[in-house]
Amino acid sequence: MTKQTRRDFLRSTAAVAAVSAWGVPGSASAAGPTLEYKPEEGAELRVLRWRRFVQGEEDQWMANTKKFTEQTGVKVRVDHEGFENIRPKAAVAARVGSGPDVILGWYDDPHQYPDKLLDVSELGEYLGNKYGGWYDVCKKYGKNENKWIAIPLGAVGNALVYRESMVKAAGFDAIPEDTAGFLKLCQALKAKGTPAAFALGHAVLDGNAWVHWLLWSHGGMVSDPKGNVVLDSPETVAALEYSKQLYDTFLPGTLSWQDPSNNKVFFDGQIGLTNNGISVYYAALGSKDPTIHAMATDIHHAHYPVGPVGKPTELPGITQMMAFKYTKYPNAAKAYIQFMMEADQYDPWMEASIGYVSQSLKAYEKNPIWTSDPKHTVYRDSASRMLDNGYNGPLGAASAAVMADYVILDMFASAASGDMSPQEAAKQAAERAKRYYKS
Predict the structure, then answer these.
(1) Would you say residue 363 has pLDDT above 90?
(2) 187 HSE (CA, 13 A, CB side)
(3) Do 279 and 393 reside in the same domain of the chain?
(4) Helices and strands of the chain, counted as H and E runs
(5) What angle do CA 37, 40, 42 make, to 5 degrees?
(6) Which of 274, 289, 302, 368 has CB 3.0 to 4.6 Å from 175, enough for a Cys bridge?
(7) Same domain, 11 and 67
(8) pTM attached to this predicted model
């Protein structure tokens, strides 16, 4: 492996300068801190990323990659996999010490093998200084023991997606902002034959998003800040009791749902409310089926309601770029990651994703995509409202493993369906969590 020296990059003395004012909507000034990595002679990169949710996003990513090759001479091969496959493939690469140079992973995947990843602290600090700072949650995801081990690319927003006509037919003008009112809405939707439905199968994004929201909204959490498992608590039981009431309003079959499942029944008109990214709206907008296309005007988005804890407790999916120590070309890998995060590439990429991916750096809030269509705006706030999946404990191998093992999803599925009482489900989940949170 080639060793990096300080000669391999150039930094300005303005390393702590803040991001410059935005002169043109959707673009940042070139002024501010600079960082340049010099790729190794003959460098080639292999990048593994998740397969598109929005075609334009992937097209722009590939266009940016081509631009990187043209400017640096570094050949880049990009492989695309279903997002469910990224986590196991990344884990295998870390274990065997070979594979893609850069992987776009999920949640706190990097914290499962921090010693296998390149230190990207210089890059993390540079980007934060240049682009208005990282959201706190993104900083927590990207750092391990004060060292940057990954660069948060963005939050794949997950919000409530609903048919406005069905919500109004149920007697509500909008989605209630509290969990008590939200339950009443779901009960009314069921009475009208247009129920809500949320995934309780092993759905990486949609399933994890709503059950973690519900757990945290009632004050439950897997561990305390010291890493002690506190899942078996009255707050967790309260969340599970609420989930049972909510599940009683669902369309049948959600216990086996994967991430694509709610899309189909939503377009079939079987449900009036679910959770998803903005892709449902754009699938309708771009559909050649006149019935589905007409549905786009009726599709709206809302933040998850706030529960008894009195603050937002959302869990969008976060995707991070991580470079592995086994790479033969560490400078080229860092240069590629930096290139994709710079405004000239990031702004058009985010616009091409049409709101599916929201920014991890605060300066990009000003991208015009968030105001070009008011239906986008909910997703702009994903990172500013989200908690990390290890909340309220430390991120690391334990929190990542609990997520990967679907401990929280399984707990809610068992309690909501009646397979276990809320007390039994909380106790069993706590015991499962303790296998990873070892004192």
Answers:
(1) yes
(2) 11
(3) yes
(4) 19, 13
(5) 135
(6) 302
(7) yes
(8) 0.87
CATH number at residue 169: 3.40.190.10
- Per-residue pLDDT averaged across 136-145, rounded? 94
If you ran DSSP here, which 8-state letter would residue 148 be given?
Answer: E
* Helices 234-247 & 422-434 angle (0-180, nearest 10): 120
One-letter identity of residue 218:
H
| Residue where the block lists tokens 């589905």 | 292
The residue range of the domain holding 239 is 159-315+388-434
Answer yes or no: do 197 and 295 share one domain.
yes
Centroid of chain to Cα 101: 22
C-beta separation of 216 from 389 below 8 A: no
In the sheet that holds 273-276, the strands lie side by side as 273-276, 159-163, 299-302
Angle CA(172)–CA(177)–CA(178) in degrees, nearest 5? 105
Asked whether residue 292 falls in the same domain as residue 409, the answer is: yes
Give which of 271, 189, 254 is closest to 409, Cα–Cα. 254
Mark whether 296 and 325 lie in a shared domain: no
Does residue 11 surpass a pLDDT of 60?
Answer: no
Yes or no: say if 397 and 436 are a contact pair by the CB < 8 Å rule. Answer: yes
Are 117 and 324 in contact, with CB atoms under 8 Å apart?
yes
Same domain flag for 84 and 198: no
pLDDT digit string, tens, across residues 429-438: 999 999 999 8
What is the DSSP code (8-state) at residue 256? G
- Could you tell me the pLDDT band of residue 31, with boundaries at 50, 70 and 90? low
Q: Which residues contact 6 (CB under 8 A, 6 or more apart)?
A: none
Q: Quick one: average pLDDT of 104-113? A: 92
Q: Within this chain, do residues 68 and 117 fall inside the same structural domain, yes or no?
A: yes
pLDDT > 90? residue 284? yes
